[in-house]
Design goal:
homodimer, Rossmann fold, 10 helices, 11 strands, about 40% helix
């Protein structure tokens, strides 16, 4: 499969490398075509890896991941362009963290709105599925790194898109439990656990943990 | 031990009944001394149960629980009075849910502030410990109702108070893992998982679930 990843940070790189390892073709997209991180990542990941602008990566992928910083996600998607995004599944992994006021970050949007909703509203013809934004990127692509099962949350307005994403999360990354929280407004809930996640990372002194819903 | 519980809803009643069952004396406090729910609860819980105003319940308890609705917690605590609260541990179970705009509720405060912080700021001589606000009240007092272990979060500025509360949560209710998230600003994190909790309750069709941090 051809996959476009918007964002060249550790999240985009980690997901991209895993998807290449699984046999997919992946293009990392960034603001500038000569992004150094993207060039280096492409070198390290062989012939199935490529990089380009946000628009090029969006045009390349049949499935897209938003791995940009939440504060600039809408900018990045505008640069990617509706003509390259419309009709496609966009797995939104971003969190609207605001680091401008120091640590710990707050959220740029929450409570009565969310980044996931803002993206869906700005791009109504994109099938936005919010997922994977509640754990470290190593666990996103390798949940078995923890000894015990744990959960990934998913939400979005398009049921078929969610079914596809759930199947991909299981097949690609090995997730056992994908909890469908309903429509995209549930992104408020998953984005709003970031403050707790950040506290836990500090207390546990590791990012290698995740939430499990015990029932 | 003598325990004062502010609030006569299902949370206060459930915690109160459990504490009486464990041999403590419990007074439920409410705005009006003739609160019908409190009168009925007192009848059902025998000689160790009593009820009164917020001020009476606060004066009665050596340890206090805030089980009022988050939107009115500061009012209730003002009615309880600093003279009855100061120097005591107040376990803050409340969540600042705003039902005024319909379902699902939003939060009256979040992101850069929290109810826990507002209470601590308004009552600097009270040892506020935020705890138990992230699960259904049946699980608060009986975590073993789920087959698998799960977690309760705790935060507050006073380390000794937190040690006492952690010991009580274990001894009284049977909690195995009490995760200390640090100072009271961590209340932002635990209060902000309510939107996710509410979504999960809808999806799972039960309030009988809780978070476990898998590491």
């Amino acid at each position: 499969m051809k996959i476009g990843i918007l964002g060249t940070g550790i999240v985009g790189q980690t997901i991209g490398s895993k998807l290449i390892h699984l046999g997919n073709d992946v293009m990392l997209g960034s603001r500038m075509p000569n992004n150094e991180k993207a060039i280096e990542w492409t070198k390290q990941n062989g012939s199935k890896a490529s990089h380009g602008t946000f628009a090029q990566a969006a045009a390349f992928g049949n499935i897209l991941f938003n791995c940009t910083s939440g504060a600039v996600s809408l900018d990045a998607l505008n640069l990617a362009g509706k003509e390259n995004l419309n009709g496609k599944i966009l797995i939104d992994v971003a969190n609207p963290l605001d680091f401008s006021k120091g640590m710990p970050p707050s959220l740029t949007v929450c409570n009565t709105d969310s980044l996931g909703e803002q993206i869906q509203k700005s791009f109504p013809e994109v099938k936005v599925v919010k997922a994977l934004n509640t754990m470290n990127c190593k666990l996103m692509v390798d949940p078995s790194a923890l000894d015990e099962d744990h959960d990934v949350f998913m939400c979005g307005n398009n049921s078929e898109a969610k079914s596809e994403v759930a199947a991909m999360l299981k097949e690609w990354f090995g997730w056992k439990t994908v909890i469908d929280l309903g429509d995209i407004t549930a992104a408020r809930g998953t984005e709003m656990i970031l403050p707790l996640w950040l506290r836990l990372m500090g207390v546990l002194q590791t990012p290698n943990f995740n939430f499990k819903i015990v029932r």
